[in-house]
Amino acid sequence: HESITLTTSVTPETAAVRWFKDGTEIKASKKCVIKSEGASRTLTVNAAESTDSALYTCQTKDDKQEFRVQVKEIPVKFAKKLEAVKAEIGGSVSLSCELSHAKGKVTWSRNGVEIKPSKRFQIREEGIKRTLTITGIRAEDEGEYSCESRDDKSSVTIVPK
């Protein structure tokens, strides 16, 4: 999720360059920022993902500089797991946990079935905190609720009374 910055120098300072990713030319965008200052030529790839792993090349008319880039994904673990909560029929309950870093994606599920946000099921992300709030609890909401990241899982059982 960090930025990749590749820098090289050219002579003469006016030399035009083209950047390539695995042989395909890179066009400037929000994701790929291309800069030219004096003799310096820089490519910044923002919010790197594993799909940005590649052989990057900065090419002038008759020379090139290659950069082999390997993006490693930080494991998304739970720093704070789900805790047991009391659920009363008709009431509401919030399940929350904390991740090892703020960019982690999670999936909420009940008895193995993914929960999609709705009027009764609100899903929130605030920094490293992930929260599922269930309103208007019914007897059929009983079950094992889990929050799952790419690398970890936390579960808790809810039995409405």
TrEMBL record:
Its main location: cytoplasm. It is found in: Cytoplasm. GO terms for cellular component: cytoplasm. Keywords: Cytoplasm, Disulfide bond, Phosphoprotein. Residues 1-70, 75-157 form the Ig-like domain. Signal peptide: none annotated. This is Ig-like domain-containing protein. It comes from Chloebia gouldiae.
